[in-house]
Amino acid sequence: MFDDENEPGKRWLETFFDSGSRMASEAQAEITRVRALRTAALASAGVQHPEESSLWDTPDEGFGYGLSKLQQLVFDDIKAYRLQGLIRRAKALLPNDQRRIAFLASHECKFSNSICSGIPLCSRRFSNELWATAVQSKLGAKLSCLAPFINRTLSSNMPSVDDNYVEPYGNNIKKLRGAKGGGALANHNSIVDVISDWLLKVHIPHMGGVRGRLKTCKDMFTHITQLLNPEDLDPAEQRVLQKIIPDLVPDFRALPETFEDIDMGPLAGFRPMVDVKTLACNGSYQGSNVNPVETRQSRAAAEYTRRAKDIDAKLGTPAGEEGPMTAEMKTYGSPPGQVLAPVVGAFGEMSSDMYALADVIAAAKTADHLQFFKGSAKEFRGMFRQQVIRDWGHAAHFGWARLLHDRRRELIARRPPSHQHEETEFYANHFYQNREQFTARH
Q1: Apex CA 187: angle with CA 185 and CA 193, to 5°?
Q2: Same structural domain, 436 and 388
Q3: Pair 266, 311 in one domain
Q4: What is the pLDDT of residues 239-270, one digit of tens each?
Q5: Is residue 136 part of a domain?
Q6: pLDDT grade for 65, boundaries at 50, 70 and 90
Q7: Looking at residue 232, what DSSP letter applies?
Q8: Peptide bond just before 94 cis, omega within 30 deg
Q9: Which 8-state DSSP code applies to residue 50?
Q10: Distance between CA atoms of 187 and 397, rounded to whole angstroms?
Q11: Would you say residue 158 lies in a domain?
């Protein structure tokens, strides 16, 4: 019956379906259902003439013949077209629509999507308010915590700053220049510290971060910059000296290039400099076909090279020659002198340098784990990589939500505009500050 001349690829289920059994009827109904799902996915993606497929271009009697993991093949194909449909719908929105911006910026990032794949981690203790804000921000929805304060003025040390008012999505609060309280620095340092924490877990020596030895990298170039007299430098030149200092310097030189059947990653065997950046939702997100975090990463890495040359010029290095600062930087990184500038975007999305750090840490954790347990190195690496991605992703969402709530409390003008009654303002603030207690009593 299953000889090639009987075309089993078209008829292998024929006798089964003709039996009229309940199982056969349910199998036929399931095939019809998934075909309908694919048709709907194709329509949402705007695909009228899909590519030829040995899976779908066969009659029901031959559906799935000779294919392993049939369900996975079916739904991977359907989900791919559904994603195309979502991207198509997002791009049909206005360029400044927050839902479009959030989806296009973060839908491919595993760090950002980690908040939608499980409950909060014990290491990231979200309150109900912070969790709601993080999820709403990730989806590009209006933030419920800002609803009573729309169009209020934000206090800043730079009175002439643009966009110094509250809008429904919290973008202006997050990117406010001259904001008081140091919230942006705390958000930045929380990312540095979570990387440092994982470096300690996998026994990677490093400078910078809460677990580093030393906890700062500020003296690593002192033997070069001490030749400059700070009193002779203008404020701009002093800022160059400050900004040349990285956040972390992990030492991966003890790691081999490969371990069993896994690649330890491009950072293994090197000692890179890491300078973490955060990127709030600004004009670079709107109507752009490029990834904002990757653009920021490239610019930050290039800025390091330029700053090193500026310091060399200040030290008297002739133009076109390699100065001591550039030579020192070339003792770090791969390729020599290349600075890692991982960027955390406004929606928890992260740049490729952050993935590189996650990969080498997961591989180091795998090598450490297999000293005591048996198993597949690839499977363990995948498990540890997922743990790193989830923890760092939750840390990014937590940091942005905390920054927004801190600034909501400290920077929004409490005086109501003239059209709003003071009593309404009082109850709006009172309800927000006591929201959880109010909900518990009712």
Answers
A1: 95
A2: no
A3: yes
A4: 777 778 899 999 999 999 999 889 998 999 99
A5: no
A6: confident
A7: G
A8: no
A9: P
A10: 10
A11: no
Stronger pLDDT, 160 or 279, i.e. the higher one: 279
Given a contact cutoff of 8 angstroms between Cβ atoms, the answer to whether 137 and 401 are in contact is yes
CA distances from 291 to 302, 370, 391 (A): 17, 37, 23
Tell whether pTM > 0.90: no
Domain end among 69, 91, 113: 91
**Domain identity same for 360 and 442:** no
193 and 282 assigned to the same domain: yes
> How large is the C-alpha radius of gyration of the chain?
28
CB proximity list for 267: less than 8 A, separation 6 or greater: 252, 334, 356, 357, 359, 360
The tokens for 106 are 């973060």
Q: How far apart are CA 241 and CA 160, in angstroms?
A: 28
CB of 323 within 8 A of CB of 313? yes
Out of 46, 62, 91, pick the residue that ends a domain. Answer: 91
63 CB burial (10 A radius; 0-12, 13-18, 19+): buried
What residues does 312 pair with on adjacent strands? none
| HSE-up of residue 19 (Cα within 13 Å, Cβ side) | 14
Distance from C-alpha of 120 to C-alpha of 256, rounded to nearest angstrom: 34
Same-domain pairing of 423 and 372: no
pLDDT at res. 155: 86
- Both tokens of residue 273? 């400099």
Domain that holds residue 28: 4-91
**Are 318 and 399 in a shared domain?**
yes
Spatial separation of the C-alpha atoms in residues 413 and 169, rounded to whole Å = 17
User: How far is Cα 384 from Cα 386, in angstroms, rounded to an integer?
Assistant: 5
Task: Please list the residues that pair with 412 across neighbouring strands.
Answer: 154
Report how many domains make up the chain: 3
Q: Which residue has the tokens 């559906």?
A: 63
Picking from 177, 111, 116, 159, the residue whose alpha carbon sits closest to that of residue 346 is 111
The whole-angstrom separation of Cα 80 and Cα 45 is 9
Q: Residue 207 in contact with residue 245, Cβ under 8 Å?
A: no
**Same domain assignment for residues 295 and 376:** yes
| Cα–Cα distance, 46 to 214 (Å, whole number) | 56
* Statement to judge: residues 361 and 432 lie in one domain: no
